[in-house]
Input
Amino acid sequence: MQVRIPRKNLSEALNHLERLIPARSSNTVLTNLKIETKERGLALSGTNLEIDLELVVPAEVQGTETLTTQAQLFSQVVRSLPGEMVELDLEGQELIVTSGGATFKLQTGGTESYPNFSFSDNHDLSLDAKEFMQSISAVRYAAATEEFRAVFRGVQVELNGKHSRVVATDGFRLAYHDFGSLNTEARKLVIPARNADELIKVFRDGEVKLAFLPGILSVASNQARMNIKLMEGELPDYERVIPKNSNVNMEINADELRQAVSRVAVVADKHASNKVELIVAGGKLQLVAESESGRAQDSLDIKQSGSEPAITVGFRAKQLLEALAPIDGVANIGLGQNTPAVFRSEKDSGYLAIVNPLRV
Amino acid sequence: MQVRIPRKNLSEALNHLERLIPARSSNTVLTNLKIETKERGLALSGTNLEIDLELVVPAEVQGTETLTTQAQLFSQVVRSLPGEMVELDLEGQELIVTSGGATFKLQTGGTESYPNFSFSDNHDLSLDAKEFMQSISAVRYAAATEEFRAVFRGVQVELNGKHSRVVATDGFRLAYHDFGSLNTEARKLVIPARNADELIKVFRDGEVKLAFLPGILSVASNQARMNIKLMEGELPDYERVIPKNSNVNMEINADELRQAVSRVAVVADKHASNKVELIVAGGKLQLVAESESGRAQDSLDIKQSGSEPAITVGFRAKQLLEALAPIDGVANIGLGQNTPAVFRSEKDSGYLAIVNPLRV
Output
């Protein structure tokens, strides 16, 4: 084979694969990536056994070849190359990598013992990558990080004729993001949150096509194909924990609130969950935090409404910051004494988050 | 007291002190910093028992006060403040920090149990900070990092009427940098390398004054005073290991050589000290590295001279890169079969480094 390929494009594809492919494994074959010549260019693929990924990089290709080589080393070599273009060739068992005066000869392996990827060519649904990935990005923080019930460590994708939604919850707080209706039969699938992270990084824009295989979500764009293992089960009914009304509502600039929360949290008590108190009264929000070492206070102007004239509620600083993070511009926040706080975005009506207050 | 001080300047001073002052200590007093009102502004000081540091930040000051407060917390609070100016006040035992709507009240302590710093007001020598610190920066890498003989973990400062020099060696490679003559009696002092790092960071330009106290180097500028504990002893005679002549000499662009070394080192054998071979012949330098997983080769144009027509020598990639790092522009490199390689900088005649080749 003879391949001429721009270093930058090859390097970008390898970055995605290098994150996925294990640097060490008891099965050393899994530390390899597969390189395959195609009509459209060079196909590079790899797996962590949870996610299979294939990326096609446009290239001038002559001849037909399929080989495997150590993924991390190949990535490092490509990153270090001096020229804009990279030439690849196979000499016996060695992959020859040439660029601007430098030559590397790398050991290769066969593909017999390498996993066989079964990317789907039939797709059930096509949607806008940016919209779908932004929804996942907006709610992914709410998934559980610790062993709890497995399904809480995933993001649930809900598809049906009426609305499409991505939702995540760790059982204590929740976030969902609606992203418009799709013409599809009703489905719920739960993607492990760390796999969803890879999905977001690989598919950034354009159109993506989804295929629903047993236990697997298959995602494809022009340049990439990804198979993701799904979790079993689905989230319990979460709609019933979302408060219909709150005692006090406020409109506030999300960025100013984030800054104020971060600021007072500096002296918050680590042994008391880094509690930050929100005190709403008379069109003002006061933020207070304290610990043995000191006390902090800040105040912001808000637009206040609701059935009660004032309220004081405490939250974990981190949970406030995470619920606010996807909100750009004005946040609408509903507070109640013994009910979860509700966060909405004025600009992006698809987003909703709830956070439980700390008990006093 | 009442103090008005620009947040940016206060924050910069605290960054220096925060690096030094331990976040945790069995003697909790040492996690504090001392705040003292002075005519010129606010003096902030702290210690890690190896280095005592005092920084004066220009400020509007009313009243006289000396207090201590938790260094890390105070730094975090100042960094988080919203305004350009910070106001400090003392209310009972509480330090009140106000800026742009936010207020912090921090616990303070007395100064009775806090270490007493003895910064020198009499100085033996004054010199250009930039020149002195650049010399230290250029050679500091050559100091030993592991326990060996203590003195090898320091940088030696040599002062006398003829020349001033900073030199470091781990016993296997060596670097020195000369920085002009000073009118002073002959002295050698060894600064622990990690303390030299702090010296470089705090004194960047202007004039510095040195005072030589027993076992301590005292350094002062207009804004800062630092006492550094010195090491006992001095480096053994190193001049005799510097080769007078080399078999092959080359002139080469230091940056291109660094890039080529980094590149071929990607496939160098970790079990063979990441060896990179330099092959000089016919006005060309060829770089070769290999391991089980592959082989790399690169070549660069050089200006070659010397008594022998060709040579092949191997080095640890990291040691080559470190010896080259201080060289900007053209490097003059002398190679011998069984003698150390000598690195000089065309632009900066003060710099010299030697690196031992690997045995074949």
Q: What stands out?
A: Chain A has a mean pLDDT of 95. The two ends of chain A are 70 Å apart (CA to CA). The first strand of chain A starts at residue 2 and ends at 6.
